[in-house]
Amino acid sequence: MQPSVRKSAHTWLLATVPVIMLAMFVVPYTLLRTVDTWYGSALFWTLATLAVIAVNVAVSAGWSQDEAAAEPEGQLPGQGDEH
Amino acid sequence: MDSAWVWIGIGLYFLVATCAALLSRSGTAEDMADYFLGGRRMGGFLSAMSYSATTYSAFMMIGLAGLTYAGGIGALGFELLYLCGVTLVLIFGPRFWRVGRRFGYVTPSEMIGHRYASRSAGAVAAIASFVFLLPYAAVQLTGAGYLVSGMTNGAISFTTGTAVVCFAAIVFAMVAGLRSVVWTDALQSVIMVLSATLVVIIVIHQMGGLGGFLGALEDQPGALTVPGEGYFTLSTFIALSLPWIFFSISNPQVSQRLFTPGSLKDMRRMLIGFLVFGFIYTFVSVFWGFAARVHFPDLEAADGATPALLGSGLVPTPLAIIVMIGILAACVSTIDSIMLTLSSMISRDVVGARRGLSDRIQLAAGKAVIPVVAGLAYWFAQLQLDLIAVLSVSASAGLLVMVPPIIGAFFWKRGTAWGVISSVVLAGSLVLGLEYTGTMLLGQGSGVWGLALAVLVFIGVSLATSAPAERAEEFITAARAPLRRRLVSQGR
Fold first, then answer.
1. What are the distances in angstroms from CA B178 to CA A27, B22, B343?
2. Residue of chain A minimizing CA distance to B213
3. CA B398, B169, B140: angle at the middle one, nearest 5?
4. Mind telling me how many Å the CA of B222 is from chain A's nearest CA?
5. For labelling alongside B116, which of A51, B58, B231, B396 has CA 20 to 30 A away?
6. For chain A, what is the radius of gyration of the CA atoms?
């Protein structure tokens, strides 16, 4: 996959995470409020978390192309302006 | 349980962990990056296990189990939301890592100070971390104290339990800095998750299998819903969850770990390894709380759920001792990481930066700070404040005020040092005031107000003061991936 296409796909995948997390607040307190069994809120939170882990696996796959062994290393911070 | 068993377990743990710490020591660490960051060469598996051990502490097996005991399934949702929040590492992990290499940062507050071109901003961030992390370290000692006294019905006192863990933490941190802490962490993470999972399997088996276990829970009305029996109101759920969603960037003892992997590939292993570990461990802790709820419905304190389960006949004694070691080791590893982070911050960002001391002297100062931090945490633990989970969250609520400056560092060139200083001081003071007086403004927790004020003040003050444009450009460019850097420089 072209890097720019991959980046765009990753951005979309990442954007699903806040939506899923918002649903993890809202759904158990509304739709599943009275479902007092294991396939209620517990299952919803579990599946939502698995989806988020899958996003993490997919997006971080791009990190495997190791970029930076050759990067300049360990330059000490410049003497910052003092307050 | 006979206290002799517990002492044998503690002795064995100390022996094995000391060996691991000594073996990890390859020569004497002479500079700050070597001692506090393992030379920025940590491998993926070790990093994942150590990140897990640092994050998961007394809070999980005692605090989360206690929270499940007290409030039901809401505890699972709250903890899984934290785990989802670790997705922030996808955005910030590589950026921390790149700027850490480029500019040689040892601590997150040093990064803040350099990015905003102000040592004062770095020092304020370091001091705020100190104020809010100390109670969190103390919570670990409290957990250890409850555990050993609960398991032995008081034959080993709370004070003795905290003292033993405090001593072990100082020894391992002093041996070889992060390198030894990472090895003891990895060892204990594996023990912790395997033994705890085994206990869950045994206990569920004794309760008539998964069907019997779930049936027993469904017999308790509200245990599997929120707000359930009333503990997890939406406000409480938000107040607990919000600080933890940002934990991976707001808590310096874990964000500092983003500087340590040898490569981004190692960071990926760290992230995914941690997510898998956390997922399993969350379920184990919640199952554990539910099992105690079914078997011991009348415990005086919810945090006694795990000790009660381990001290009962439900779990074979040798296995209970292994789990106890795992939990004690979790307490030790979290305190170790906090001590290392705080001592690196104090020595580098408060003492060293002010006086321009050499690396070697800063390192000596850092090592000298370790027992001081441990002593303060020990004193705090003796206060025996209530409910570990709530205390831990209060500490994290305070660290939330660091989130706007951290996000701003990477994504907002207009952010200024005065924005950082004023937002951390004002919002941090607000959180402290609310926590100290136990005030819930409009029914919301201190973290919600602290974060809101921090965002407003950071943006407002930054817009009114002048930003270090050149430094911001240099920093944000260094944080970008090489490909993106090239595209930006070509004007695309």
1. 42, 12, 12
2. A38
3. 40
4. 6
5. B396
6. 20
Give yes or no for A30 touching B (CB within 8 A): no
Q: Are B122 and B113 in contact (CB under 8 A)?
A: yes
| One pLDDT digit (tens) per residue for chain B, 492 residues | 678 888 888 888 888 878 877 777 655 556 767 767 776 777 778 888 888 887 887 678 888 898 999 999 999 999 999 999 999 999 999 999 999 999 989 889 999 999 999 989 999 999 898 888 888 888 888 888 888 887 788 888 888 888 988 888 888 877 767 777 777 778 778 888 888 888 888 888 888 888 888 888 888 888 899 898 888 999 889 888 888 899 899 989 889 889 989 889 999 999 999 999 999 999 999 998 998 888 888 887 787 888 888 877 788 888 888 888 888 887 888 888 888 888 888 887 877 666 567 777 777 888 888 888 888 888 888 776 655 556 666 777 889 999 999 999 999 999 999 999 999 999 999 988 888 777 888 878 888 899 999 999 999 999 999 999 999 999 999 998 776 666 666 554
What residues of chain B lie within 8 A of the CB of A28, using their CB? Answer: 77, 225-226
Contact B321, B184 (CB under 8 A): no
**A39 contacts chain B (CB < 8 A):** no
Element (H, E) at B451: helix B446-464
Cα of A77 to nearest chain B Cα, Å: 5
The full set of domain ranges for chain A reads 3-61
Q: Mind telling me how many Å the CA of B22 is from chain A's nearest CA?
A: 27
- CATH says B3-389 is which class? mainly alpha
For residue A49, give Cα distances in angstroms to A70, B49, B79, B84, B426.
36, 20, 10, 6, 35
Please tell me if residue A9 touches chain B, with a CB cutoff of 8 Å: no
Most A CBs within 10 A among B41, B88, B224, B359, hence the mutation to make, goes to B224
Rama region for B228: left / alpha / beta (φ>0; ψ in -120 to 50; rest): left
Where do the domains of chain B lie? Answer: 3-389
CA distance B469 to chain A (A): 13
Contact A40 B276 (CB under 8 A): no
